[in-house]
Amino acid sequence: MRGQLPLSGLRVLDLASFVAGPVASTVMGDYGAEVIKIEPPGEGDPQRRLGQAHSIPQHPVNFCWHLTNRNKRAVVLDLKHDAGRAVFDRLLATADVMVVNFPLKVRERLRMRYADVAPLNPRLIYAAMTGYGEQGPDAEQPGFDSTAFFARSGLLDALTYDGGPPAFSLPAQGDQMAGMNLFAAIAMALLHRERTGQGSEVGTSLHAGGLWSNAVLAQGALLDAYVAPRPPRTQPRSALANQYRTGDGRWIQLTIVREEKLWPELCQAIERPDLLADPRFATTEERRAHAPQLAAILDPVFAARPWLEWRQRLRHHGITFGLLGLMRDVPHDEQAVANGSVVPSAVADMPRTISAPIRLSFAPEPATPGPGPALGQHTEEVLGELGYAPAEIAALRAAGALG
């Protein structure tokens, strides 16, 4: 498709660190925006070292950095230095969007609140990511996705099996979701500016993202309605919404919602028509009441055939099911490639990457994702575009304003 990407011509200043805030600017960059990442002197954004964490797959390629900071330009500025702040203010005047996740007190100390920067650029969209929101008793509480998104929202509680230890989160899942929420807020603010000419302040939090992701159970809790703790697989609430192991060691997730229609189909697929005459399973209510007994029957049935045979049988009978994918399956998932979820990368030692979960009929596909920038890689380039002469840049560097 010809034409421009929808965010072409926009300039985004990314002052955020780690994952959730930078995700929003990454998606903007994917769809045409120019993103300038501003980092402090020294080691820069701690996400540059996220790949060293114990929960991250270890690899010589710093893929965590490339994934969330692809195609950005990097500038190092000491925002505590008067001259560094002056450079930032000049850059700010050229920006459309500014993304931050500084704690509230740090924003105040650095004069980086919306009230501080809006007079310099009334059309600016100021987008803030926080752990727990900007109001309330925990507004100053630091938050990561494991604590604010997963733990506080009740997600881990809902995933914990009855009598077992608490469930745990996986790396950056909540960050990625919350970053998309911030991207949505920015998109609405840009539409508002298109209509009114006015900039604005928008934001979201990891905690709010966790509650939204867990909204069905959280809404029930608001009404004092709760489900019993998650039972073990052998004692399911419904044997038709349960997991079964196949003969070759894979796991299938059955999710049969329209039981009255699909229960007979399942009995045909598994070659157990006798179950249709069993009074324990005659109705949805009876099947739920006798779910452990039905699961005990289904276990050896599914264990008798391999996954590929079950895929054919269940598809033939219109059964809703899914394979519990392994991480080792991801590189070979043809469906992900066919729908653009896995795309080629311009990073020489990282030939493929994950794309943003967005498809647009009115715009070309995003450019091939490139690498995340080296620390301060584009400082002199960006300052030159702002009108600083080489001698001025050298003086700023000597003064410590550029780190």
Polypeptide structure, described:
The chain has 403 residues and is of the alpha/beta class. The protein has two domains: 267 residues, Rossmann fold (3-Layer(aba) Sandwich); 86 residues, 2-Layer Sandwich (formyl-coa transferase, domain 3), CATH 3.30.1540. It is built from 17 helices and eleven strands. The strands form three sheets. Strands 3-2-1-4-5-6 form a six-stranded parallel sheet. It has a three-stranded antiparallel sheet with strand order 7-8-9. Strand 1, helix 1 and strand 2 form a beta-alpha-beta unit. Helix 6 crosses helix 8 and helix 8 crosses helix 9. The protein is elongated. The model has no long low-confidence stretch (mean pLDDT 96).
Quick rundown:
The chain has 403 residues and is an alpha/beta fold. Helices cover 38% and strands 13% of the residues. The strands form three sheets. The chain has a six-stranded parallel beta sheet with strand order 3-2-1-4-5-6. Strands 7-8-9 form a three-stranded antiparallel beta sheet. The protein has a two-stranded antiparallel sheet with strand order 10-11.
Task: Identify the notable features of this structure and list them briefly.
single chain, 403 residues, alpha/beta, Rossmann fold, formyl-coa transferase, domain 3, six-stranded parallel beta sheet, three-stranded antiparallel beta sheet, 17 helices, 13% strand
CATH homology superfamily of the largest domain? Crotonobetainyl-coa:carnitine coa-transferase, domain 1
Structural class: alpha/beta
CATH topology group of the largest domain = Rossmann fold
The CATH architecture of the largest domain would be 3-Layer(aba) Sandwich
Shape: elongated
Uncertain residue ranges: none
CATH first level of the largest domain: which class? Alpha Beta
What is the radius of gyration computed over CA atoms, rounded to a whole number of angstroms?
26 Å
Structurally, the number of domains stands at: 2
Quote the beta fraction: 5-15%
Mean pLDDT value: 96
Distance between the termini: 43 Å
SSE string: EHEHEHEHHEHHHEHHEEHHHHEHEEHH
Helical content (DSSP H or I, runs of 4+) = 25-40%
Q: How is the main sheet built?
A: 6 strands, parallel
